[in-house]
Amino acid sequence: MARARLYVVTGAREEQADLAAFLSAVLEAGADIVQLREKDAEAGDLLRWSQHFRSAADRYGALFVMNDRPDVAVAAGADGVHLGQNDLPPVWARQITGADVLIGLSTHSNEEFDAGASEADYLCVGPLMATPTKPGRPATGLEVVTHAATRADEGAERRPWFAIGGIDGASLPGVVAAGATRIAVVRAAAGGDPGAAVRALVAGLAASLVP
After folding, report:
1. Domains of the chain
2. Which of 26, 134, 157, 195 has the greatest number of C-beta atoms within 10 Å?
3. What DSSP string runs through 64-125?
4. Residue 110 and residue 114: Cα distance in Å, rounded?
5. By the 8 A CB rule, do 51 and 35 touch?
6. pTM greater than the 0.90 cutoff
7. 103: which strand partners?
8. How confident is the model over 8-52, as pLDDT tens digits?
């Protein structure tokens, strides 16, 4: 997790019927983490899809994270589980996962970020821009990124954190300028050539982080 810079969140891609190929493409291109996010799926389906995530993550030395479900994360052998503000609180999720599973937490304000830093192993901040993957969730803007970066610069004990929400090649330089060094993406990697999209993001992130 300390080395991770690019985090790809995806569904099971049932319509495209290309989950295994998609995971191989984004991981080979440089993604460090892949998350399975299927909000309405049952546990059996999550476990079936998880086999592709676990296999691909092992093959490329990456991390596999399950969205929302600490119980399924354990059953699937995931490296982590990602929780929202209305999901099971991290302290209770830890009772299910034990100490060896990473717990991530979505935060949408400065206050949530500060509180989450003592609860989770890593944080996501956003959505920075309005996005259809989070309907009804207002955009936070870049202020939360600046806050998160400032807290780290002040030497506060903070967890690794990822900026998320509408980030693509065009918006990436501004996100990095606001203080982000790690990003998570959904739609930016979901198009016709996921590998090329991820390679461009990895290159853009590296270029933007050069002093």
Report:
1. 6-209 (3.20.20.70)
2. 26
3. EEEES-HHHHHHHT-SEEEE-TTSS-HHHHHHHH-TTSEEEEEE-SHHHHHHHTTT-SEEEE
4. 6
5. no
6. yes
7. 81
8. 999 999 999 999 999 999 999 999 999 999 999 999 999 999 999
